[in-house]
Amino acid sequence: MQPPARCATFTVNWRYLPESGEFLWFSQKSDWGHLYLHDLASGKLKRQLTGGEWNVAQIARLDPQSRTLVFSGVGREPGRDPYYVRYYQVGLDDGPVRLLTPEDAHHAAKFSRDGRYFVDTWSTVDTAPVTALRNRDGDVVTEIARADLSRLQAAGWVPPERFTVKARDGKTDLYGLMFKPSNFDPANKYPIVTYI
Question: How far apart are CA 183 and CA 181, in angstroms?
Answer without folding.
Answer: 5
